[in-house]
Design goal:
heterodimer, A: 263 residues, alpha/beta, two-stranded antiparallel ribbon, globular, B: 329 residues, Rossmann fold, 5-stranded parallel beta sheet, 29% strand, binds flavin-adenine dinucleotide, binds adenosine monophosphate
Chain lengths: 263, 329
Amino acid sequence: MRILTIVKQVPDSNATIKVLAEGKGIDFAGLKLVADPFDEFGIELAVQLREKRSDVSEIVALTLGGEKAGETLRIALAMGADVGVHICDPKLETKDELFNAAVIAEAMKKDAKGFDLILCGKHNIDLDAGAVGPAVAEFLDLPHVGAVTGLDVSADGKHFTARRRIEGAEEVVECDLPALLTIEKGLVEPRYPSLPNLMKAKKKPVTLLTAGDLPGVAEYAETTKFVSISAPPPKPECKFIEGEPPQMAKELVRLLRDEAKVL
Amino acid sequence: MTSNVLVFIEQRRGKVHPASYQLLNLATQVAAQTGAQAEACIVGEGVASLADAVAAQGAKKVYIVDDPVLALYRAIPYTKALVAALDAAAAKILLVPTTFMGRDLASRVAARKRAALAIDCTEVRQDGADLIAVKPMYAGKFSGTFRLTGDRLQVVTVRSNAYSAAAPQTGARADVQSVALSLTDRDQRLKINEVTATGSGVKDVTEADIVVSGGRSLKSAENFKILYDLAAALDGAVGASRAACDAGYQPHTRQVGLTGKVVTPKLYIACGIDGAIQHLAGMRGSKVIVAINTKKEAPIFKVATYGCIADLFTLVPLLTEEFKKLKEH
Ligand SMILES: Cc1cc2nc3c(=O)[nH]c(=O)nc-3n(C[C@H](O)[C@H](O)[C@H](O)COP(=O)(O)OP(=O)(O)OC[C@H]3O[C@@H](n4cnc5c(N)ncnc54)[C@H](O)[C@@H]3O)c2cc1C
Ligand SMILES: Nc1ncnc2c1ncn2[C@@H]1O[C@H](COP(=O)(O)O)[C@@H](O)[C@H]1O
């Protein structure tokens, strides 16, 4: 079984993000970038599958992003992936989820050995779309299961059952491999890459791909174009409600009914 | 290609997701700009009976894809069904609620149709043939504006409560067209074996108009009962911070935030939640936010509409009583 984990580099969720003049983008200078937390679940899941089974031949980690995204691949390799694929070309760097999915799908098509299990995050924490996984699956004519919280791959490595979280319910689904899964929190707890493993990761092979390596991409276009980013309009100051708890409760209910009109 | 606007009506077991009707209202406004019309598509089993309710919300035409294999949501069969309806409708714009199903389905449909796509938008407007979509970025700290090119189908998922539904026009009729679906075995590689409702009988945080959330300060699963009582008085749902879920007070299905669920209810009541940036990521889009916290400096007050500096164990039961009184009148 060959496993692909798709990882994206994103700003750390605790980082303060600054917007460039005229909202042209965000300021990456000094910004702490990390592997998307959902993608770490995917890497961890792949590594645990190998620890549990004897038939996992290779774990490939793939990212699409600028030069710095190579650091995120190193994390994946230090956590236990064997080889990396870095699609790195300014021409392919967009905020168009569908285009990104097409680029990732084209890179996967170039891989002659093929993948049995493809893992990616439920959604990434910068664009928060959750579009890339399902779209990659569609471009490759694969089934996908979204928001997976439990996974059981059959002994012969040909089928799986997965638990997935939908609004208000959980489902157990069954499907053949190859398939793509998007990973929800709770399935596994990502390990911290140790220092020796981070050192070893530097020696693991990473293939660089540019637009020239992916001629199939020419069929697609960036059709959703980023225009600008801005801070949302400032919220009015919080109105603090005074008084002892019984008065407070009465006053809050009155405000919610008469002023905010949400009751 | 005409410029009709098609709305995907999300339903599970015959119950329509309320955001679908909000989108019909948006579709009516968008279509009016070009003299086109708002249309709807319902996919499922035994869903034809929903056509009247959908017409009452403004759909001029309703496409129905009704088949036993569509009883439960599965990405590939639903993609085929919606694509068939899109082709029949010759629509230029497809609007889908931002839900688990909506994100999943819209992404596949857009990939199949080589459409332009924007997920989780809070604002959608036309600019010539293009569509301008505004959506939260970086966990809601910013909003991004995107341009979807007009030379192809434009697929947009829209946040719950970003738009409101129109008052239903009872008796309004729509033209109903049933659309045939043909599936191969390959389309049905995925089978659903089991569906279990989580927290039986209680609403999911993403479905409720009012969400009452608790944090680590609740100190135990039992103590959450006061929040369930408050939620019951408001017909709302109970949510929790990650700290509360990690401590086992609530299941992770109720976690709100960056690695939990994103909610945009009309009213969010945060009880004993500090307001870490990762929690705000999941709820700052709520229309009205109430924060109850003993600590005046708690960052939750930065996003709150109303703040109560109080012990939640004292205030929450009092609030429940007040809301109950209000209901009785
Ligand atoms: C990558 C990442 C992802 C994360 N994702 C999420 C996420 O999705 N959702 C999430 O919530 N967090 C998330 N977190 C965790 C987040 O950073 C915080 O640790 C967490 O939200 C804190 O939860 P809390 O507010 O319940 O607890 P605390 O920080 O312990 O705050 C408790 C609050 O309760 C108040 N309090 C105490 N007693 C009372 C009382 N009797 N009455 C009233 N108020 C009282 C205190 O003043 C305090 O403000 C994430 C963190 C990381 C690093
Ligand atoms: N540029 C990218 N490089 C690698 N993986 C990506 C990229 N964009 C999205 N993904 C994957 O798709 C998931 C969902 O992202 P999104 O659809 O953008 O919310 C992420 O968690 C990643 O696994």
